[in-house]
Amino acid sequence: MENIALIDSFSEFKDNKLIDRVTLMAILEDVFRNALKKKYGSDDNFDIIINPDKGDMEIWRNRTVVEDGEVEDPNSEISLSEARKIEPDFEVGEEVSEEVKLIDLGRRAILALRQNLISKIHEHDNTNLYKQFKDLIGDIYTAEVHHVRPKMIVLMDDEGNEIVLPKDKQIPNDYFKKGDNVRGIIESVELKGNKPQIVMSRTSPDFLEKLFEQEIPEVFDGLINVKKVVRIPGEKAKVAVDSYDDRIDPVGACVGMKGSRIHGIVRELGNENIDVINYTTNPQLYITRALSPARVSSVKIDEQTKKAEVFLKIDEVSKAIGKGGHNIRLASMLTGYDIDVIREGVEEVDDVELREFSDEIENWVIEEFEKIGLDTARSVLGQDVEDLIRRTDLEEETILDVFRILKEELED
User: Fold this and answer.
1) Which long-range contacts (CB under 8 A, 24 or more apart) does 147-150 make?
2) Which residue intervals define the domain Transcription factor NusA first KH in the entry (predicted)?
3) Looking at domain 137-200, does it have CATH number 2.60.40.730?
4) β-bridge pairing 162-166 and 195-201
5) Residue 75 has pLDDT above 90, yes or no
6) 46: CB partners within 8 A, 6+ apart
7) What is 204-279's CATH superfamily?
8) Mean pLDDT computed over 91-103
9) Which of 67, 95, 101, 201 is 20 to 30 A from 289, alpha carbon to alpha carbon?
């Protein structure tokens, strides 16, 4: 196999990989020099001439002519009689340049050289790919579903790069099939061996923030600032926004007329419920807004413990807590305060904590009531049975049984 043939056999890498012809030739020279060192002990006296335009190369070994019988280093010296076989008028002290063919390296060396070249090219590609996607961390990226696996979805972008979307980075109600386009943010890039693993996420709060930048011009232009985003992926999210221009209503601009602007974002996130609120440095007001849609009567905060007591009318409590406790949990995450709900007008002596009935009511049933903000006997009895069936995972028979137990206790 001639030198030129070896180069041509690898020129396909230039077309399919993130590598140019000149870089390919530089890698080729490095690989050949390593092969020469193994074969001859040194590559210092070798010239490797590469022509990237034509895609060819030559290897020349330079040796000094010495008297017959005085050759000490066969790699750098050649006897006078051997030199004159190459050219009859050589004299002692002159330099002989002789072309080295691949066949001179031996078959095993050629196979090793080929493998080393492939490895070097892949290493170069992986390094470039790692750097490319490191710069894209936190940005929205789109790729096509290539394989659907139990623990992840394997995506492929237009350049043929593999991206993984793990199960825990997918929104719970996401459903994708082969050929679908998927949007998410590049969350991390790690080297697994020599190969970069690119991880996409659709559950990160940063994904929602980037969607606001893409879909809402005022956010993209910097007229509206997204201060903080908190999410329970697929369920609910809260976004605090602010504007330095008093003429701009940040919430109205983000939501749009009849929700027109935010609708596309909600649809992208699998109908995740998004509350957009005005950011403020006033902690009481911020907590009040964060608990929307509940109407808060008053807020008492302790800055040292970062705790807040929120006072609400009894019919506002379930709104503040929200389905599955999502609303109050997100409000705490958004404001940074541990929020306790205090019901106005409830006499503690005239009520009993649900946990007091743990001998008669199973814990999982009590937890279902607590999820919607009902943790006392009277708070449960003040609800409509039909409404409780709709808001909890409890059967009518179970709810009626709880009502009976609570009523008997209060009557006694």
Assistant:
1) 147/178, 148/176, 148/177, 148/178
2) 202-279
3) no
4) parallel
5) no
6) 33, 36, 40, 59, 60, 61, 62, 100
7) K homology (KH) domain (3.30.300.20)
8) 81
9) 201
